[in-house]
Amino acid sequence: MVTHFDHVTVVVRDVEAANRFFALLGFEHDKSVIISGDTFSDYMGVPGIEADHVTLVLKGATPRTEVQLLRYRKPQSLPDPNIETLNKLGFNHVCFAVDDLDSEIKGLRGAGIEMRNEVLDFHGRKLVFLRGPEGITVELSERKR
């Protein structure tokens, strides 16, 4: 039985830019390693893998919540031409809960982060999509009390 969300992994070309984005959401650097060799190639299903693996941890979150960044050295990462298209099959977006959506948006816009849409009130929540690293969609959600 699943007990809680653990992590999401994002493949990026620019680890520092992705790190800055997630730092704005409260994630801190935890550790960085290089993954390579047969064990990781077999596990990931990526022959000849060599990648920077960076773990970011959400400050103060219980249970622990991570964003893992992968920057492939070998083989070259493959672009997804439909990354921003939310009606494609497969992964759609990741959503993080916030206490004050308006305050978060203000800070993010001030840091140059683009909103993909206007705030939506839906099912007792205020929601907004952000344009994240490599074009991934990140959503923020404030539950109404």
Describe what you observe in this structure:
With 145 residues, the chain is an alpha/beta fold. The chain folds into two domains: 7-74, Roll (2,3-Dihydroxybiphenyl 1,2-Dioxygenase, domain 1); 94-143, Signal recognition particle alu RNA binding heterodimer, srp9/1 (2-Layer Sandwich). The protein is 19% helix and 37% strand. The strands form two sheets. A four-stranded mixed beta sheet has the order 1-4-3-2, with helices on both faces. The protein has a four-stranded mixed beta sheet with strand order 5-8-7-6, with no helix packed on it. Strand 7 and strand 8 form a beta hairpin. It is globular. It starts with 6 loop residues before the first strand and ends with a strand. The model has no long low-confidence stretch (mean pLDDT 96).
Mean pLDDT: 96
Q: Please count the helical segments.
A: 3
CATH class of the largest domain: Alpha Beta
Distance between the termini: 29 Å
Q: How many strands? A: 8
Q: Could you describe the largest sheet, including whether it forms a barrel?
A: 4 strands, mixed
* N to C succession of SSEs: EHEHEEEHEEE
CATH architecture of the largest domain: Roll
Question: The CATH topology of the largest domain is what?
Answer: 2,3-Dihydroxybiphenyl 1,2-Dioxygenase, domain 1
Q: What is the molecular shape?
A: globular
Radius of gyration, in angstroms, nearest whole number: 16 Å
Number of domains: 2
* Share of residues in strands: 35-45%
Unreliable residue stretches: none
Label the structural class.
Answer: alpha/beta
Helical content (DSSP H or I, runs of 4+): 10-25%
Q: Name the CATH homologous superfamily of the largest domain.
A: 2,3-Dihydroxybiphenyl 1,2-Dioxygenase, domain 1
What kind of oligomer do you see?
Answer: single chain
Strand order of the largest sheet: 1-4-3-2
